[in-house]
């Protein structure tokens, strides 16, 4: 009887809630400036929430039921867990594709977390999320063109390929030709994006919280739907390189924007031929060495983070192209210098002076195994005195004993199954502490963590070496030294800074010599 009464009470509550929601929705649709868009939003939220709940429940039940009664270290449990991982990854992939938009970004980010997420998730997301996103039809593309520029693509361009060369979470890219013969890339926002962005932001975290071992370092509130902002970001980025890092500026490029053919939902840019940054075979065909690409990527993003304070925060492989330097010639051995082409400038973050210098100081301390400075700067960035070691571990993907190890290669991840298993174990073991740390950290640092994850994935694909850490150590140290010189005009302070600079150069040179000797030793071991 009590159960029946409770059920009736819940049913009445549900009915009242449904009626109330329906009444509010109807009123808002009727009074909205854009009734069709408001109606889409009100119908999209329940559908997306329902999909999230079903997927989350299905995944949770699969793990609970399938692993029930299996011994912790048994071969049978390992086999079944692999199968559940694979099924769950496919369910999550299907959810991302059905909901689209920011969910695709979620899938892309999961594909970067190879040392925290089970391999089945990483592999599934990588196979489909970077270049195989849902595609808008040509009719939908024409609808966007008519609304934004008043004409269909065939009236604006002499040629326009209706089949996109790439489709991402927010937009897709078509190749076209201007009347004067110049080849361009036209980025067209998916027509549903502005209608569903709010719904996406309101529901996406449910599925993340269900997969409790997934590293939750992604902040979903940044969604940028204005392509004019993206275009301005690309120009500001290049301007920073020429003003603040002229020594590397020729090696970093972004496509030219055609402003007269660009709006909030359309972006027309110079077409660039190049190899995706993780495509080693194509990179070598260009006459470029992958280790040179790894060094260039590390240097470019270190300059952005530690010196410019204006950071491209979505550097996954599909957004980084490599081409030979246009002005360079082949060396005697047929090698050419690489140029890094940055695509998709929709997600940038400004670092204020203090945050930038604290972040640079922290990376300097990480490279040189300075435990005191690691703690000091982690606290400044919001990690707290109790979680600074965990923060250092998340940044480097190394346990604390390796972080403070004075060995020259203490931060290098070998990439073996042992490393991967160890890191996944830590992620699961310290999940409550990780969640608390991410709750504390300011939003800008969460985006730096996301950027860090993407860059780590790119460098792993490029088989990067210890040299990339020396680059980070040098640039972060230079930024700290420059900041000290700016903050004080005292001759004594400046003299002290100059001494620090000499000591830094000596230390970096010593590390470089040690690296050469280490490489020589490995080569000799390989020969014998």
From TrEMBL:
Keyword list, A-Z: Signal
- Pfam families, per the entry: ABC1 (PF03109)
The answer, when asked if Signal is one of the entry's keywords, is yes
Q: Which GO terms describe its cellular component?
A: mitochondrial inner membrane
Query: In Gene Ontology terms, what is a biological process of this protein?
Result: mitochondrion organization
Q: Which SUPFAM superfamilies does the record match to this protein? A: Protein kinase-like (PK-like)
Q: Please name the PANTHER family in this protein's record.
A: AARF DOMAIN-CONTAINING PROTEIN KINASE 1, ABC1 FAMILY PROTEIN
Q: Which family does it belong to?
A: Belongs to the protein kinase superfamily. ADCK protein kinase family.
Q: What name does the UniProt record give this protein?
A: ABC1 atypical kinase-like domain-containing protein
Species this chain originates from:
Cannabis sativa
